[in-house]
């Protein structure tokens, strides 16, 4: 069972969305565990303050290293710190990708450090050797949403969490492309303005080779349109296509 130890100022955020759907079933079946640690509990400052003004000036406040360290030392021994995968979510971190997720050792537990305000004092990140990870090229108010995203994306890779393990092999990013379009009943769909929109005929033809070809071509088109960066890399690796 994987254990996610979450250092946060807002423990009430968890498990949140993770307790619903397939992830909720996995949580109830003990495929993973969430342990929240409230950083503010380890402050002995006035009003349990956890932040201070950044040296050199600038907007915002920075989480103090001493208080974060207290929360870590009170909850983990040296062996646990050495054996856990330690991640701090930060906009300046390395980009999280599906490939990176598949490379994580799922036999190890995680410590997820959630920042707030302007960020976290770099000294505590470096001292405990946290990996700095960015989940997107956007700025969030804190790391809690990033933690939820990370846990869901990682747990989907665990055997037995999804109903069909083949799902992983046909999803976006698995082969360098984003996924093809999806369709289901009814066919045709009668729109609110009474138009009829058909499913692409090839998908209901029963011709499996032609269907596979359509899906691949559609993936190429979607990738070129929505993720030109991925499309460029794909073409480099598949020059004959």
Characterize this entry briefly:
By secondary structure, the chain is an alpha/beta fold.
Topology:
Elements: E1 2-8, H1 21-28, E2 32-38, E3 51-52, E4 62-63, H2 65-73, H3 78-83, E5 85-95, H4 98-103, E6 110-113, E7 119-120, H5 122-127, E8 131-134, H6 144-155, E9 189-190, E10 196-197, H7 208-226, H8 228-237
Parallel strand pairs: 1-2, 1-6, 4-7, 5-6, 5-8
Antiparallel strand pairs: 3-4, 9-10
Helix pairs in contact: 7-8
Report what the structure shows.
There is one protein chain. The protein is an alpha/beta fold and 241 residues long. It has 2 domains: 2-155, SPOUT methyltransferase, trefoil knot domain (Alpha/beta knot); 172-237, Trp Operon Repressor, Chain A. It contains 8 helices and 10 strands. The protein has helices spanning 21-28, 65-73, 78-83, 98-103, 122-127, 144-155, 208-226, 228-237; strands at 2-8, 32-38, 51-52, 62-63, 85-95, 110-113, 119-120, 131-134, 189-190, 196-197. The strands form 3 sheets. The chain has a 5-stranded parallel sheet with strand order 2-1-6-5-8, with helices on both faces. The chain has a 3-stranded mixed sheet with strand order 3-4-7. Strand 1 (2-8), helix 1 and strand 2 form a beta-alpha-beta unit. Helix 7 packs across helix 8.
